[in-house]
Design a protein that fits this description.
By secondary structure, this protein is α/β, with parallel strands linked by helices. It contains seven helices and six strands, in the order E-H-E-H-E-H-E-H-E-H-E-H-H. Strands 3-2-1-4-5-6 form a six-stranded parallel β-sheet, sandwiched between helices.
Length: 232
C-alpha cells in the first residue's frame, strides 16, 4: 500500500539510481522514496533489483526495476529510453554503482583493471552522455541533477586498490568537466564525497577491516537527500 500523501521534496520527480539494489544505492532509494520520488532501481542483477523494489513496496515506496550494465553503451541508451517512456521525464541520476578489486599492481590482471575502469568511470560517462538530453528536457526551465558518488578513498594511500583509486580520481575530473558543460543547459552536477561505509561491497573487499570504524550508509544517503531537496 502506498504511504499517505506527504509534501515530499522530490514528489513527481523521477530518480535513476545505478547500483540501486544493494549497499549505498539501496539506502539512497529508501531515503529518496520517503521524499516521494519516482524511483528507478538500475542494477546489472535484475533479480536483485526486483527483490529490492518488492522490499520498497512493502514500505509504501513505488519503484521500477531495470537491468542495466553501465559499461554497455547500448544498454545505457535502452535504459534511459525505457525510463522516459515509462515516466515521461528524468530529473535526477545518481551514479552510484562501483566495483573494486584488491590486488597489487603485480597481481592485478589487465582485464580486471579494464573491468573496474569500465564500470566505475566509463559507466558514469555513458550515463551522463545519454541522460543529459532527458535531464535537460524537464519543464520550461530545466532542473535536472546529475550526482556522481565519489570517495575520499582516492585521496588516501593504501596498497592494492589501485584501479578503484584511479577511477575515483577520474570521477572527480569527469564531474568538473560535466559541470562546466552541462550547467549552462540547466543540469546541476555534483560529486558527493563519501567515506568508508558498512556495506557488503567494502566488508567483502576488506575482510580485515573493523566494521566499527565504518559509518552507516544512511549518513551518506541522508546527505544526498538533503542536497537534492535544497537544490530543488
Amino acid at each position: 500500500m502506498r504511504r499517505p500523501a506527504s509534501a515530499g521534496a522530490l514528489r513527481g520527480k523521477t530518480v535513476l539510481i545505478t547500483g540501486g539494489a544493494s549497499g549505498l544505492g539501496a539506502t539512497v532509494a529508501e531515503q529518496l522514496g520517503e521524499d516521494d520520488a519516482c524511483l528507478v532501481i538500475a542494477d546489472r542483477a535484475f533479480d536483485v533489483a526486483l527483490d529490492r523494489t518488492t522490499a520498497l513496496a512493502e514500505n509504501g515506496i513505488d519503484a521500477l526495476p531495470i537491468e542495466l550494465d553501465v559499461g554497455d553503451e547500448a544498454d545505457v541508451r535502452r535504459s534511459i529510453a525505457e525510463v522516459r517512456k515509462r515516466f515521461g521525464r528524468l530529473d535526477v541520476v545518481v551514479n552510484n554503482v562501483e566495483i573494486g578489486i584488491r590486488a597489487s599492481i603485480a597481481e592485478l590482471a589487465s582485464d580486471e583493471w579494464e573491468r573496474v575502469v569500465r564500470t566505475n568511470l566509463t559507466g558514469p560517462f555513458l550515463i551522463a552522455k545519454h541522460a543529459a538530453s532527458a535531464l535537460a528536457a524537464n519543464d520550461a526551465k530545466p532542473r535536472g541533477h546529475l550526482v556522481n558518488i565519489a570517495s575520499v578513498q582516492c585521496q588516501g594511500e593504501w596498497p592494492n586498490p589501485a584501479a578503484c583509486h584511479v577511477t575515483k580520481w577520474g570521477l572527480l575530473g569527469l564531474s568538473q568537466a560535466l559541470r562546466a558543460e552541462l550547467e549552462p543547459r540547466g543540469i546541476k552536477v555534483t560529486a558527493l564525497m563519501s567515506a568508508g561505509m558498512r556495506t557488503p561491497y567494502l566488508l567483502e573487499a576488506s575482510p580485515g577491516i573493523d566494521p566499527a570504524a565504518l559509518q552507516d550508509s544512511a549518513h551518506v544517503a541522508r546527505a544526498l537527500r538533503a542536497m537534492l531537496a535544497v537544490a530543488g
